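Marked as duplicate of an earlier ticket. Keeping the data here for the record.
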Amino acid sequence: MNSIAPTWEKGFRVVEPQINAEGTHLYPFDPSLPIDVRFFSFSGRNCIRMNRHQYCEIYCVTSGKTTLQVQDRFFKVNENDMVVIGGDLYHRTIDPPNCQLRLVVLFFEPDLIRATDGGGEEIEYLMPFLVQRADFPHVISRSTGLPGEILSLILRIHDELPAITVHARLAVKTYLKMILMLLVKHYSAYLGTQEDIHRKQADLERLQPLFDFLEKNFDSPIFVNQAARLCAMSKSHFMFFFKRATGQSFRSYLNRFRIAKAQNLLATTDEPISSISQAVAFCNQSYFGMMFRKLVGATPLAYRRQFSNGHEIEPAPAPHVSLRFGPRKRGAIDVRP
């Protein structure tokens, strides 16, 4: 029986800096084998922005509970449940305050599967990720037994990484295909069409000029009329279109984006809070403080203190999580004190 002693990383500190202006999470994959397994912990103090990504993501909750937001939908995720997220869907995990949340996360690029077969059938492995309709159930309950079965395969992938040998790479791809086949069967009733994929991609491409502008000009005010002109739309159509494409209003998106920039400045510089407020285009410091607290769950000053001397204030220790392979009750994830 194999066992793993995972290294838990602070999820916010890893993920948030990798999200760019358009809300895309850019994962630093090894180009030769674009797949990774990470062990993330969240303490409920920081709020990751709504973001999307072009890779595929599966995560299992091994400790705690959370809320998943996908576009404008919300899902409760309990301990030992699993979440499946495809590309180009704006989403985030909202961990409750004062709750220690732990996730085992699998990331992989779709091209890893596309590159393993010469024909066209390999796309079928990816359909649960590429075609997620508006009614797609992103959360798989532990009661189905599937999260435990898939977690076991994810941990086997982790054991093989960085997969230097030919046999290790073959094992990684084999375990991944086993995971995907289980998901294809589970989601067979919810899969849409490839036309749905093309429509979503086209929607986001129309917003690209705005995303590019925000990355370069986040320190300057921008109004809805200006954003609409950048995308060659009327104001009313832009507001509807942006909400459909990203799952949030433009105002909400802009506030979250600027607050995330402020979080980075608070954690990495000694600039006065008033200066940081202006640097992210909040002319009113009082409103900046109110919005920061609403989205982050702490005042700007309290947030900065968390990062004093390069360290966050630690929450109370969470229970030790033991992840094991081998015989067990179907669907169970071992969480032992």
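See parent ticket for discussion. The radius of gyration is 21 Å.
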